[in-house]
């Protein structure tokens, strides 16, 4: 097995709040130094099963944007396992500029080949997947964000005896795989809240196909849209790190935690609630975000 069950315990840290409830964060970002958070678990069975069945000439192909945590994670898996990997990257303009993007530099250093496609071509990635699967019959083709049914099984590993105690389980939502796994495998009495980092009206339907349960609620926390960064959120992220020693990133976890704080303030959670937020990782994205912020003469994430 190239991806192993972690030998270290994943800590659950308390975030003190001055309300009559308890807030905790599970540091799934610490699961692996290069393969971050939920992406580790979404890849776990996809990669391990594939390599068990295709030991000869394995090849991985996947999709993502220029700052994608999933691209970073898959490239690291490729490097770790010594498997060639291809990343289909959205944005043809990056062809000559990828060296300015820390995520893509990381992917290249891991040996990932990058193929840049136009936004138009990227939109038809299902068609592209079909074509690639014919061309490379043995290849493992992982969809954008790593979300599929096998990924959902891996997310189960984020839950354990310790997470059973909580009334609310919170996670950021991108393509919906992570929340689907939490919804599918959590306890009967637990409520799941998904903080949408992207305004995508088809998410409910996507998640509905991956979990049989209706125990989840989706809340918009896209704050200005997917990948958009507000100064207020940067301030929140910097304060959060200073106060609790936990780094967040500006695409998913920073937006989720800011929204959770707001909801606590507004009395969304009943008294004595125990709330658990999953830190899904993605800290590799901070460097790229800071480069953009620097160009715009704005405050940086520290
Ligand atoms: C990809 C990602 C998510 C979203 O997970 P989905 O399974 O795509 O919904 C959340 N947080 C971080 C840090 C991520 O990298």
List the keywords:
Rossmann fold; binds pyridoxal-5'-phosphate; globular; alpha/beta; 302 residues; six-stranded mixed beta sheet
SSE topology sketch:
Blueprint: E1 12-15, E2 22-26, H1 37-53, E3 60-64, H2 69-81, E4 85-90, H3 102-109, E5 113-117, H4 119-123, H5 125-135, E6 140-142, H6 149-155, E7 168-173, H7 177-185, E8 191-196, H8 203-210, E9 216-220, H9 231-244, H10 253-265, E10 274-278, H11 285-295
Parallel strand pairs: 2-10, 3-4, 3-6, 4-5, 7-8, 7-10, 8-9
Antiparallel strand pairs: 1-2
Helix pairs in contact: 1-2, 1-6, 2-3, 6-7
Bound molecules: pyridoxal-5'-phosphate.
Residues 37-39, 69-70, 145, 147, 172-179, 252-253, 280-282 line the site of pyridoxal-5'-phosphate.
How many beta-strand segments? 10
Low-confidence runs = none
Strand content: 15-25%
Distance between the termini: 36 Å
Whole-number mean pLDDT = 97
How are strands sequenced across the largest beta sheet? Answer: 1-2-10-7-8-9
Per DSSP, the total helix count is: 11
Radius of gyration: 19 Å
Structural class: alpha/beta
Largest sheet: 6 strands, mixed
The level-1 CATH class of the largest domain: Alpha Beta
Overall shape: globular
- Run of helices and strands: EEHEHEHEHHEHEHEHEHHEH
CATH architecture of the largest domain: 3-Layer(aba) Sandwich
What is the share of helical residues?
25-40%
Query: What do we call the CATH topology of the largest domain?
Result: Rossmann fold
